[in-house]
Amino acid sequence: MASLIQQDGLYSLQFYKADRSPKRKRVPLRVRVKRDAETIRRKLERDYSVGTFDPWTDDPLAYDRKPLKPEGIAEASEAFFDAKSHKASLTLKDYRKVISRFVLHVGPSTPVGRVTAKDVEEWLDSTEAKDVTRHAYCRNLKVFFRWARKEGLTDVVATENVRLRKLPRKYPRFLTHAEVERFAITVRREARSVQWLADLVVFACHTGLRRSELVNLRWDAVDLDSGMLTVANTESFRTKSGADRKVPLSETAKAVLGRVEAAPNCEYVFTCSNGKISPDYLSQAFKKYATKAGLKGVHLHHTRHTACSWLAQRGVPIEAIRRFAGHSTITVTERYMHLSDSMFSSSIRKALA
């Protein structure tokens, strides 16, 4: 219905209708990230189709700032999905799965402000899910209700007073130095076509980069002289939090970058024979060789757990780890602050010596 156009780094939409003057109307979006532009595009196209937005007469920026007042929770959930469209596909899939089922339970036309903790508890009971799954469902609903409160659709977050059985504390799985070395040796021994995977995994364990950050890392974001790399938003990539961050490079990480050869006509640091590595291919390759290395139940994201856990075990302050990992809150970082009994004893003795 509308064409997305980029000029001088900024996006705009171009609408066309033969009986209007002018026939083509360009609407500036004033955003630089394509994913953000696509989100606005879907919203404006939908409202243009039902007659609530006219690109020839309405200001899209003022229009976009109008307070959202959906009729019921079903409409609010669709607006929420649009607002969160920049999230990872699996995250969006979880949001849709949980929130859509909850909407059917309370009724699509029910106003968000009338939903209570009792409604949430009744729905959780109806799912007959295990305790850990109930907690996961509640977390997804909490994100939705917090967004709804921010948008003025409700005064309370319905999940705040939901009663859930407390789960035993479970620390993230992380790799030891020996396991990382075993993985790298396995890759180098098994296949020449994926030699890049060994370097990428070692690098990930020393930088804590997410999967999307690893495959989108460009050479212009790396400064070996200062020993820093920048995780930044680009036209084709958006960080999970939406904010840029600096990551210090360890000597091991710098050594990896020194070994990696820049692919011809390619701006990305880690590449395969086909050029840029796709996120799904990276996860599949990691899983395959982790299994061959005898590392059962390990996924690529465990390399991020590994980086944070290694820092915590070396006594790095929690705020420094939070900034290093790009966590939005200190609560997320706290789960990495686990120590073995021997490390606990030695750290106390050292502090009190």
Please characterize this protein's 3D structure:
Residues 71-149 form the Core-binding (CB) domain. GO terms for molecular function: DNA binding. Belongs to the 'phage' integrase family. This is Tyr recombinase domain-containing protein. Keywords: DNA integration, DNA recombination, DNA-binding. It is a single chain. The protein is mainly alpha-helical. It has three domains: 3-50, no CATH class; 73-151, DNA polymerase, domain 1 (Orthogonal Bundle), CATH 1.10.150; 177-346, Intergrase catalytic core (hpI Integrase, Chain A), CATH 1.10.443.10. The protein is built from 15 helices and eight strands. It has helices spanning 34-49, 60-64, 73-83, 89-106, 117-127, 131-150, 177-190, 195-207, 211-215, 251-259, 279-292, 302-313, 318-325, 330-334, 341-352; strands at residues 2-7, 10-16, 24-28, 222-223, 228-231, 245-248, 271-272, 275-276. The strands form three sheets. Strands 1-2-3 form a three-stranded antiparallel beta sheet, covered by helices on one side. The chain has a three-stranded antiparallel beta sheet with strand order 4-5-6. The longest helix has 20 residues, at 131-150. Residues 64-68 have low confidence and may be disordered.
Distance between the termini: 71 Å
Q: Which strands sit side by side, in order, in the main sheet?
A: 1-2-3
Q: Which architecture of the largest domain does the CATH hierarchy give at level 2?
A: Orthogonal Bundle
Low-confidence stretches: 64-68
Which word captures the global form? globular
- What is the CATH homology-level superfamily of the largest domain? Intergrase catalytic core
Q: Count up the domains.
A: 3
Q: Look at the structure and give the CATH class of the largest domain.
A: Mainly Alpha
Summed up, the helix count is: 15
- The number of distinct β-strands equals 8
